[in-house]
Design brief:
Length: about 375
């Protein structure tokens, strides 16, 4: 009888009165211990209110139902597909909406609704994948900044592929602690390419110089990236670099000169096909002849072997506490080794090109150390 009178009353009631009544009826449905007949009648009345011409009435219902797991599923689904101000509370909070419902809403909704879904307290891996696949930039940023979101590696990669050229998305990706190293590297390369194509950069320094500086900057960024990558991810990063054609001899020489032995080992495992345990054992204490055989299996040019062996010997001494050295000292010793090897039976072109590379590494290390020294003096 109460519901019957309610349905007659709303035909003439004002908007504010209907909104208050809708909110009260929705709260009574989820809080009161109604018998079956009354519950069915209340649910029917709420369903009728979905057709109310005023969004304020439907919004009042959504506010009342947003936190309750007892809310009628068909009513929640209808309100969640309503206009943004009506749907917002349910998209953000309703426990009635499952992953399948939310995935469908992501595909069918605009940026505002997608952002609310991406910022929910818990976002499953499947839902995150849907946002990564079709979400607008703002929604993807909200997903990446949500500590309650479970994001798979493939979803990070998809966001980077689709939207990595946009600064807010790129910043959110780079700031995420779980971003896979290969995706982080791809973003660095993408940013370098964007800068190279910039008319301003091209006008200031010319296309050829801009491309050369971009390659050098990306190489240095790749080295820095190794420091922030967990050893368990080295194999994935190596494969990514190899697929891109960036796992070059020159890059590996830089890696060994800077003492990134674990990553160098992961690269040797991928290039040589040798077991990881054997490669690790050789790098930590193997003889030069066995190491040279490993380098040949990895197809490292013969002209690099002596310099790499010299660097490896120094880094072993550093690891054992017998020497204090860094990239500056190691690159100098590698350069001396290459200069001594010019008279031996090695390809002089390879040797000369490698010497120039190692010299550039040495000069970069000198500049970096001098810069750090100057900053330390200024800060004192």
């Amino acid at each position: 009888m109460i519901v019957q009178h309610f349905l007659k009353w709303i035909e003439t009631a004002r908007v504010a009165e209907r909104a208050a009544a809708a909110n009260a009826l929705a709260r009574a449905y989820i809080v009161s211990d109604l018998d079956f007949e009354d519950r069915c009648a209340a649910e029917a009345a709420l369903t009728l209110l979905l057709d109310d011409p005023s969004p304020k009435v439907r919004q009042a219902m959504a506010e009342a139902l947003k936190l309750s797991p007892r809310a009628p599923q068909q009513i929640v689904a209808a309100l969640a597909a309503d206009q943004p101000e009506v749907a917002a509370p349910l998209l953000a909070l309703s426990p009635v909406l499952g992953d399948n419902d939310l995935i469908d809403l992501v595909a069918a909704s605009g940026a505002a609704a997608q952002g609310l879904i991406a910022a929910r307290a818990r976002v499953s891996m499947a839902l995150a994948a849907a946002v990564a696949e079709v979400g607008e930039p703002d929604a993807c940023v909200a997903l990446l900044r949500n500590p309650g979101a479970e994001i798979a590696s493939v979803s990070f990669r998809r966001i980077a592929e689709r939207l990595g050229g946009l600064a807010p998305v790129r910043e959110a990706l780079i700031a995420h602690p779980a971003l896979p190293s290969e995706t982080r590297h791809a973003l660095v390369i993408s940013l370098g390419e964007v800068l190279t194509r910039s008319p301003l950069v091209t006008a200031l320094m010319g296309k050829a110089r801009a491309e050369r500086l971009m390659r050098e900057a990306c190489t240095r960024a790749s080295l820095t990236l190794i420091d922030g990558t967990r050893p368990a991810e080295f194999a994935a990063l190596v494969e990514h670099l190899r697929m891109r054609g960036d796992l070059t001899t020159g890059f590996l020489v830089r890696v060994i000169a800077h003492g990134k032995i674990d990553f160098f080992g992961a690269a040797l495992v991928a290039l040589s096909g040798q077991p990881e345990s054997r490669v690790r054992a050789l790098l930590s204490g193997g003889r030069d002849t066995a190491l040279a055989a490993l380098f040949r299996a990895a197809r490292l040019p013969a002209g690099t072997h002596a310099a790499v062996l010299r660097a490896l010997a120094v880094w072993r001494e550093v690891a054992r506490g017998k020497r204090v050295a860094g990239a500056q000292e190691v690159s100098y010793m590698m350069l001396r080794c290459l200069q001594d090897a010019r008279g031996e039976a090695v390809d002089p072109v390879d040797c000369g090109g490698l010497a120039n590379l190692v010299k550039s590494i040495h000069l970069e290390a000198l500049r970096e150390n001098a810069r750090g020294h100057a900053l330390a003096i200024a800060a004192a």
